Amino acid sequence: MLNELRKLLALAGREVRVGASIGIAVAPDDGGDVETLSGHADMAMYQASRRGATRTSSSHRR
Questions:
Q1: If you write DSSP's letter for every residue of 1-62 in order, what string do you get?
Q2: What pLDDT sits at residue 62?
C-alpha cells in the first residue's frame, strides 16, 4: 500500500505525491476492545508520522 502511495499522481494537470502514516494495533496483545485497540493504533500512527512521510508503525509488543 505504501509503495503505491509513493508514486506520482496526475491531478488537474499537475503531478502530486500523496503520503500517509499508518498505525497498527494487533488484538489481543495491544488490547481486547475497540477503544483500546484504536488508542494504540492512534499512538502508533503518530509515531510513524514523527519518523517521516509514508511510514507504518506498530504498537505490537513483542
A1: -HHHHTSEEEETTEEEE---EEEE--TTTT-SSHHHHHHHHHHHHHHHHHH-SSEEEE----
A2: 44
Predicted TM-score (pTM) of this structure: 0.70
Q: CB within 8 A of 29, min separation 6: which ones?
A: 60, 61
**Bridge partner residues of 9 (DSSP):** 16
CA 34, 24, 57, 53 torsion-angle sign: negative
Closest CA to 53 of 19, 15, 14, 5: 19
Domain residue spans of the chain = 21-62
- Higher-confidence residue of 12 and 19: namely 12
